[in-house]
C-alpha cells in the first residue's frame, strides 16, 4: 500500500516496500560507482523508514521503470510483486504525470465517441516515437506516443 503525504513524499509499505527494498539491494550489490552506491544506500534507508521523497523518489522511479520495462520485476517477484511495484510507481511523481497524461488523452478521445470514424493514421516519427491521428465527426485528435507516455498533440474541429 502507498499514500502520498502533503510534502510530496510517498509512504511505502507492504509488498511494494518489500519489492522496492529488494530491488534496491540487488542493484546496490552490483553497483561499482561509490556515489551511486551512496544514493542507493540512502534510498534503502528511506524505504526502511517507509517513506520516500525528493532524490530518493527519483531514484526509486528509475529502478522501478527499468524493472518494469525489462520484465525483471515480474520474473523475480512474480505477478503480485510486479503489480505492487506498478501501484507504487503510479504514486511517484513520474507515474502521477503519466496517469494524468493518459487521462487527458482519454478525455480528448471520448469526444469522438459515437461519431463516424473517417480516418486513422499511425505515423512513425522516430525510434519509439509515434503519432496517432483519428478523424471522426468533424473532429481530429492527434496523440503522441513515446517513452514519456501518451500525450495529446492536438485537437482540431
Short summary of the structure?
This protein has helices at residues 14-30, 34-49, 54-70, 72-91, 93-110, and strands spanning 2-4, 10-12, 51-52, 117-126, 129-136, 139-146, 149-156. The protein is of the alpha+beta class and 157 residues long. The strands form two sheets. The protein has a four-stranded antiparallel sheet with strand order 4-5-6-7, with helices on one face. The protein has a three-stranded antiparallel sheet with strand order 1-2-3.
Topology:
Layout: E1 2-4, E2 10-12, H1 14-30, H2 34-49, E3 51-52, H3 54-70, H4 72-91, H5 93-110, E4 117-126, E5 129-136, E6 139-146, E7 149-156
Antiparallel strand pairs: 1-2, 2-3, 4-5, 5-6, 6-7
Helix pairs in contact: 1-2, 1-3, 1-4, 2-3, 3-4, 4-5
- Let me know the largest β-sheet: 4 strands, antiparallel
> What are the segments in which pLDDT stays under 50 over at least 5 consecutive residues?
none
The percent of residues in helical segments reads: 55-70%
**What structural class do helix, strand and pairing data support?**
alpha+beta
Number of strands: 7
SSE arrangement, N to C: EEHHEHHHEEEE
Q: What's the number of structural domains?
A: 2
The shape is elongated
Cα separation of the termini? 43 Å
Rg (C-alpha, Å): 19 Å
Strand content: 25-35%
Oligomer: single chain
Record the strand order, biggest sheet.
Answer: 4-5-6-7
Provide the residue-averaged pLDDT: 92
- The number of helical runs is 5
Amino acid at each position: 500500500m502507498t499514500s502520498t503525504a502533503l510534502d510530496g513524499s510517498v509512504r511505502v509499505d507492504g509488498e511494494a516496500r518489500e519489492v522496492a527494498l529488494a530491488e534496491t539491494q540487488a542493484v546496490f550489490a552490483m553497483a561499482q560507482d561509490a556515489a551511486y552506491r551512496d544514493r542507493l544506500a540512502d534510498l534503502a534507508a528511506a524505504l526502511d523508514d517507509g517513506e520516500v521523497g525528493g532524490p530518493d523518489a527519483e531514484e526509486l522511479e528509475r529502478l522501478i521503470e527499468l524493472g518494469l520495462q525489462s520484465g525483471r520485476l515480474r520474473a523475480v517477484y512474480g505477478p503480485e510483486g510486479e503489480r505492487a511495484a506498478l501501484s507504487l510507481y503510479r504514486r511517484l511523481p513520474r507515474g502521477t504525470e503519466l496517469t494524468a497524461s493518459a487521462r487527458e488523452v482519454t478525455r480528448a478521445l471520448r469526444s469522438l465517441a459515437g461519431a463516424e470514424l473517417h480516418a486513422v493514421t499511425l505515423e512513425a516519427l522516430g525510434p519509439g516515437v509515434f503519432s496517432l491521428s483519428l478523424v471522426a465527426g468533424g473532429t481530429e485528435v492527434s496523440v503522441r506516443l513515446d517513452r514519456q507516455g501518451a500525450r495529446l498533440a492536438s485537437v482540431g474541429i
